[in-house]
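Reviewers of the previous submission asked for a worked example of the structure-prediction workflow described in the proposal, so we include one complete record here. The input consisted solely of the amino acid sequence. No template or homolog information was supplied to the procedure at any stage.
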Amino acid sequence: VPLQASGGGLVQAGGSLRLSCAASGQTFSTYNIGWFRQAPGKERLFVASILSSTYYIDSVKGRFTISRDNAKNTAYLQMNNLKPEDTAVYYCAARKYNDNEYKYWGQGTLITVSS
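From that input alone, the workflow returned the following structure tokens.
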């Protein structure tokens, strides 16, 4: 399922951004959508995911909210109280509900949080 991520940019610490992940296809609701991020010089890491439940890494709990609108084939990552350590390229990814691996990836979108 092709994915298109958008919404990155430059924001000051404490600010907010919302990322969008638009998918094509008619079975979007059956896909687990994940957000990952890769900071400069570091490996890509899981941030959050959603199917019927949501999961977050500890460092973003209470600040980030993942959601989806299946009618629009779009998932979102609302990011509040951003910190400089959130600076990274963010990727959305999809895996079928019964797959263990994220097989479909969107292009990254850069978020830079200035202090």
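The chain is about 0% helix and 55% strand. We consider this example representative of the routine output the project will generate in years two and three.
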